[in-house]
Amino acid sequence: MLNRIDAVLQSATPTVMVPRHEPFVPMAQYGHRFLAASDGLWLEARRAWLYLRWNLAKQAQVAMPYGAVEPVVQVQKVPGRLVEEFISFARDVCPLECAAWIIWNDETDQCKLVKMVPTSVSSASVAFNRPALGDNEHLVVDLHSHGRLPAFFTSEDNRDDRGEFKVAGVFGKLDGDIECRFRLCANGLYIDMGNKWEGQ
């Protein structure tokens, strides 16, 4: 008999065997789970704005009696004008850093850019109090700038992003030829989305 806490954890985040002889059925409810597939362990996650299926650990040594799945990343699209608005904001405050969220309302299907009010800010960091999301609102894209520095994700970014599902974007060299990087953050998994996110 499972410990009560283990039972709750396994119920909330189960590991599911991918069937070999019938179609795989994606999860319908919001949350995430793990998939035991023929080639290893996968993460599957669903949010109002996201469906993700991604391999976490590949293996080919042991014959697993499971089926196969393919990687999927489906993200709510956001208007490119909101990203452009953030770039303009970041250029205005350069060389200081800044941050903003792109929030999507699943009832109205509208996105908005919310600029963060810093509690402390410098040319190397920005801190802010996280705003509360309203009903039907979801954080889709978390943006921040690096002023005159290159665009990259720091170890502090990794710590901040570890427990969340969101797209993260960073913009650098805002005083010249702008650099940017995007990644999908999935509870500690980081998927590189390059320097142009298709969600734009």
UniProtKB/TrEMBL annotation:
Keyword set, alphabetical order: Hydrolase, Metal-binding, Metalloprotease, Protease, Zinc
Domain of life, source organism: Bacteria
The name this protein goes by in its record: PRTRC system protein A
Keyword 4Fe-4S among UniProt keywords: no
The organism of origin for this protein: Noviherbaspirillum suwonense
JAB domain sequence ranges: 81-174
Pfam families assigned to the protein according to its UniProt record, in alphabetical order: DUF2016, Prok-JAB
Domain DUF2016 per the UniProt entry, residue ranges: 3-75
